[in-house]
Amino acid sequence: MRETVRQPATPARDALALPGTSHVTVAGTRLRYRRTGSGDPVLLLHGIGQSLEDWNEQHERLSDRHTVYSVDLPGFAYSERLPGTTTLAKLAGILPAFLDAVGVSGPLPVMGNSLGGAVAMKLAADHPDRVSALVLANSAGFGKEVALVLRLLSVRPLAALLLRPDEKASRRTVQSLFYDKALVTDDRIGHALALSQREAHRRTLLDVARDLGTVSGVRAEWRAALIGALAKSDVPALVVWGDHDHILPFSHLEAAAAALPRAESHVFAKTGHMPQIERPDEFAAVVEDFLTRVSADRQAASI
């Protein structure tokens, strides 16, 4: 008789272990978020299949001058799913109510990594009164090319297999994010595995992957509509990229510069998909410089 090899259970993780984490119910959906620091608020949005932990390093660095908010987007990590199928429009659509719920009523800078960049852009396009500036880090929305594993999620027979919780798969996922493999730690792998074991998280990842892409790559329709709307807006934007991104290629930065000619840009050398983690000091310095100049320009315009 063949013995079944069982994967060890991942220890339960405390969703509120990070200082400043809490839950808030928005339109009937319970969302996990984090708040640190004091000063002018900023909002940080994570990528597909990820969580607010992706912004830990920036909470540490930006909190001296800002009230920093990050949130598990609905359905991801430790936030509840929205009713029905999750789409980019729904993820962005709940954010004004989330901001109201945590006491932020005016426009604020919004930073997004990967999917979070597309969500930030959608928020700015649909609710320009809520966004004072955009920081887009290796953002979705500027090209067709995307990692093969995300394209394969559109193939239904493969999706269940690809999303099955597996420690080796979680390790590969984390490895794909960073140029510096020293960042592929047991803690990050364990966190990725813990998230993959949450059914709502897997369903939401699948919903969003199919909303935004096909087996051929990222859909052109939503990208063209979103970039077109943003190009007409006057929201200041900073687009940054790691030059060794294996999820959304570095070539997308050139496409972003062409699509948003008024946007600023910055390149992080020897960096993968998450410069906010891999180059935390440089990322924070670039962002603070940008936001300081945006604020000064706004004050000068109001005189």
Quote the beta fraction: 15-25%
Q: Which strand order does the major sheet show?
A: 1-2-4-3-5-6-9-10
Helix content: 40-55%
Low-pLDDT runs: 1-11
Count of helical stretches: 13
Element-level helix/strand string: EEEHEHHEHEHHHHHEEHEHEHH
Described by strand count, sense and barrel closure, the largest sheet is: 8 strands, mixed
Oligomer: single chain
Would you tell me the overall average pLDDT?
A: 93
Task: Identify the overall geometry.
Answer: globular
In terms of structural class, how would the helical and strand content be classed? Answer: alpha/beta
Q: What is Rg?
A: 19 Å
Terminus-to-terminus distance: 82 Å
| Total DSSP E strands | 10
What can you tell me about this protein's structure?
- Helix 1 links the parallel strand 3 (40-45) and strand 4.
- This protein starts with 20 loop residues before the first strand and ends with a helix.
- Residues 1-11 have low confidence and may be disordered.
- The strands form two sheets. An eight-stranded mixed beta sheet has the order 1-2-4-3-5-6-9-10, sandwiched between helices.
- The chain has 13 helices and ten strands.
- The chain has helices spanning 56-62, 88-93, 95-101, 115-126, 148-152, 156-162, 167-177, 186-196, 199-212, 220-231, 252-259, 275-278, 280-302; strands at residues 21-26, 29-37, 40-45, 66-71, 108-113, 131-137, 213-214, 217-218, 237-242, 264-268.
- With 303 residues, it is of the alpha/beta class.
